[in-house]
Specification:
Layout (H helix, E strand, L loop, with lengths): L1 H16 L41 E8 L10 E9 L9 E5 L8 H4 L4 H9 L2 E5 L15 H4 L4 H19 L6 E6 L1 H12 L4 E7 L6 E3 L1 H14 L1 H17 L3 H10 L10 H21 L13 H8 L7 H13 L8 H10 L4 H17 E3 L5 H8 L6 H11 L6 H15 L10 E6 L17 E6 L17 H19 L1
Parallel strand pairs: 3-4, 3-5, 5-6, 6-9, 7-8, 9-10
Antiparallel strand pairs: 1-2, 2-4
């Protein structure tokens, strides 16, 4: 009996480890490295990990913010989390504010001393602050993510939070001649630029790294950039992906082919034949390449030397692969962590519909809401360049993304609604070609798929776009490395020059 008990325990562990346990199948979950609308589980700007045993050098606190900054009749407030550190501060020094984005925050940005902005803070004697974005992490205005509550989740409300926070900190610390410089990356990079544009009386200058200030529903430029990045590194890599996709498309059209694909990609389910699950499958497969290109060789965690374009192409074109489709499967296996690939579109929709405030699932629901309500940013395969060089056909149409807004949130968010919301965003902030902020530096990397929506050409004589050859998303925000490309080193020096000039004006 004892030996049978041990055998049963071993079997249970085996089943759980291989995702075969019925208990594991009850709750849908996203893979850690599964790309969802351009976002991985850590948010659009990955953070390094702080030593839990370190000597803490920051203070965590909460600021009383308005739930609605634009309705005087609504007096409801919420507690918005922030951190600050005075470890580099010198009396009379400036104030640096890192604006939080589409994920819960932690003290990383205000405690890690070798980041680009904290090195600048040390040089100029700045007090550093980090403000968590409303509806992410612990900063929950209503305590839920219902459709009625999400009307308060907008970039406009978030920017008003930033403005009010700065005023509050001026009072708290009795700053008599403050010079607030905002920082941010990705979505929060756009927020940083917009904060200077909308609130120049409180925001003295801004750095907005990889900030997509242009909203667009059909972001065809995303996968076009992925192709260019792979092809630039190794044309054989890009060609292998394309040839593998052609074969995949052919197999997906027959019963025998679909059965082969179930085995090839270690699917948890039968291979999908309906359009929704099929697009969901293709998003998972192409997302492997999207995530690597987006962060390749950023100096944070495994992106510096593991999750990189060279490593990706090495796996894709390995001589042990039987063909190019096997290369795609090898990439998927490399990034899957050994788990089967769950193609369950309805499970995905239910997961996002039921997600609660705070935590990883809530952050996904909040961010996708912002894409539906303001930005779009849908990485479709509707580009002729992508079809001819990467996918072979339209495998993820933009309408597949748009209809999720109605399925997840409310039926009122149809195609017309989403497009009109995105138009309203561009009318409000003026887009990448109409940006009116001044004293703003805007770095972008050519390998970063988001750079296509950034300010790439100066819109006035005090806007400073920096296009960094061969670098990825928010690369300039992290610590310098001897392996950095010359353009990245030059861009960091340029950011420093601008910040020093603003501080010393």
């Amino acid at each position: 009996m004892k030996s049978l008990g041990i055998l049963g325990l071993v079997l249970l562990v085996f089943l759980v480890a291989n995702d075969a346990s019925p208990l594991n199948k009850k709750k849908f979950s996203l893979r850690e490295r599964q790309m969802v609308m351009g976002r991985l589980s850590h948010g659009l700007v990955p953070k390094g990990k702080l030593d839990p045993n370190r000597e803490k050098k920051s203070v965590e606190d909460y600021f009383t913010s308005m739930v609605d900054n634009f309705d005087d009749s609504n007096t409801a407030t919420y507690q918005q989390r922030y951190w600050y550190s005075d470890q580099w501060y010198k009396p009379g020094g400036p104030q640096f504010l890192m604006i939080g984005g589409e994920a819960g925050e932690d003290p990383y940005w205000v405690e890690e001393g070798d980041l680009e902005w904290t090195q600048l803070a040390s040089e100029v004697g700045a007090m550093v602050f980090l403000l968590e974005h409303r509806f992410y992490g612990d900063s929950q205005p209503t305590g839920d993510l219902s459709f009625n509550s999400l009307k308060y989740l907008t970039s406009e409300q978030a920017l008003a939070d930033v403005n009010n926070f700065i005023t509050g900190m001026n009072n708290k610390f009795n700053y008599t001649n403050p010079r607030w410089i905002t920082f941010g990356g990705s979505y929060s990079g756009a927020l940083s630029a917009w904060a200077r544009q909308l609130y120049p009386n409180n925001v003295y200058a801004a750095v907005g790294s990889s900030g997509p200030v242009q909203a667009v529903v059909d972001m065809t430029g995303y996968l076009e950039t992925v192709y260019y990045a792979l092809n630039s590194y190794d044309p054989k890599c890009a060609t292998s992906l394309y040839n593998g996709m052609i074969k995949l498309n052919q197999l997906a059209k027959t019963d025998s082919g679909r059965a082969q694909l179930v085995s090839t990609f270690s699917l948890c389910n039968d291979f999908p034949t309906d359009s929704d699950n099929l697009a969901y499958f293709y998003e998972a497969i192409l997302g492997n390449y999207m995530g690597i290109v987006q962060y390749s060789e950023d100096n944070v965690g495994a992106y510096a030397d593991v999750y990189t374009i060279p490593q990706l192409c090495k796996v894709q074109t390995d001589s042990s692969n039987s063909d190019d489709l096997a290369g795609i499967a090898a990439v998927n296996n490399w990034l899957s962590g050994g788990w089967c690939l769950d193609i369950d579109y309805q499970g995905y929709i239910d997961y996002l519909t039921e997600a609660t405030a705070g935590g990883e699932d809530g952050d996904y629901r909040a961010w996708i809401w912002q894409t539906c309500n303001e930005f779009g940013f849908y990485q479709s395969t509707d580009s002729s360049l992508v079809i001819a060089n990467m996918t072979g056909e339209i495998v993820i149409p933009v309408d597949w993304y748009v209809k999720q807004c109605a399925q997840i949130y409310d039926a009122s968010y149809d195609n017309k609604t989403v497009y009109s919301k995105v138009d309203a965003t561009n009318n409000q902030y003026k887009g990448q070609n109409g940006f009116t902020g001044t004293k703003v530096v805007l770095p972008n990397g050519t390998n970063d798929p988001w750079h296509v929506l950034g300010v790439l050409t100066a819109t006035n004589n005090k806007v400073y776009p920096l296009l960094i050859d061969g670098t990825s998303h928010c690369a300039d925000m992290y610590s310098a490395s001897p392996n950095d490309k010359p353009g990245l080193t030059k861009a960091r020096a340029s950011v420093r020059t601008h910040v020093l000039a603003w501080v010393n004006e």
